[in-house]
Amino acid sequence: MSDTPGIVITGASGRMGQMLIGQVSASDRVHLAGAVERAGHAWVGQDIGVAMGGAAIGVFVTDDPAAAMKDAQAVIDFTAPEATLAFAKVAAAAGVVHVIGTTGMSDAQITGLDAPSKQTVIVRAGNMSLGVNLLTQLTKRVAAALDADFDIEVIEAHHNQKVDAPSGTALMLGEAAAEGRGVALADVSDRGRDGITGARKRGDIGFTAIRGGDIVGEHDVMFAAAGERIILRHIASDRAVFARGAIKAALWGQGKPAGAYDMLDVLGLND
Predict the structure, then answer these.
(1) What is the pLDDT of residues 28-47, one digit of tens each?
(2) Which of 81, 83, 194, 216 is the most exposed place for a label (fewest CB within 10 A)?
(3) 211 shares its domain with 244
(4) Catalytic site residue 31?
């Protein structure tokens, strides 16, 4: 039995699930304690190494998250909103750190994490990379320094299989910009433009979503005024950056008091 923290990966067959399994398996700081898939999935009952096309590693895919988390210390969850809410209850009952990279959660679904966060550590972020979280802080500071003569547009691009828009990262950047300006994003968000829309409203924060090919993740925050533009940019070329950030969050959460945290807490940037 390894003396490193055991990590359970949900959505094991997914794009991020497989990336997480590979990164956890290769790490000397954590070990893979479980792999979870939905009931009826073809991978359930298989050794996860074999299911992924490699050698057996002795960890079998299960559709029982409670059994998978029983002897684990953390669960990393990049699945879907409803699944994440269900996993949160199981993680809280098991007392394991729950790292959430799931995007597309509604305000009501995020509120649904309040009760589990009173029982265990929940680290939730729209993006787990160091670079994006630094970009978030920069966005907040630039927005605070510039007035509404500078229009703010968040432009994001992802692969053609992504199911939510704007991306969780784009919304995180939009929230940062709104916070910098001292307004609520819900009051200034402009997400839909089609047909005769009229002139842009002063102070709005706009969102543009691009979907195509195998783009991992690109985010620009543009501050545009008459005669000048400032563009802050982050490009992710490898999903491993998200997996490494999630593992960092799982390790950080060990021994922390129950509560709701984000990657800025993990990185010591929440001042």
Answers:
(1) 999 999 999 999 999 999 99
(2) 194
(3) no
(4) no
List 41, 70, 162, 256, catalytic entry: 162
Strands laid side by side in the 189-190 sheet = 189-190, 205-211, 151-158, 217-225, 228-236
pLDDT in tens, 178-217: 999 999 999 999 998 889 999 999 999 999 999 999 999 9
pLDDT of residue 192: 83
- Domain with 260, as residue range(s), is 6-124+239-266
Alpha helices per DSSP H over the chain? 15-26, 48-51, 65-69, 81-94, 107-111, 114-117, 130-145, 168-181, 185-188, 240-252, 263-266
Instruction: Count how many residues are written for the chain.
Output: 271
- Active-site annotation holds for 158: yes
* 109, 215: one domain: no
For residues 243 and 232, membership in a common domain is answered with no
Q: Which of 31, 98, 140, 158 is catalytic?
A: 158
Q: Is 168 known as a binding-site position?
A: yes
Residue 79 among known ligand-binding residues: no
Q: Which CATH number characterizes residue 59's domain?
A: 3.40.50.720
Let me know if residue 1 belongs to a domain.
no
Q: Is 12 assigned a ligand-binding role in the annotation?
A: yes
Total number of domains constituting the chain: 2
219 is in an annotated binding site: no
Regarding whether 31 and 58 lie in a shared domain, the answer is yes
Whether residue 137 is found in the same domain as residue 216:
yes
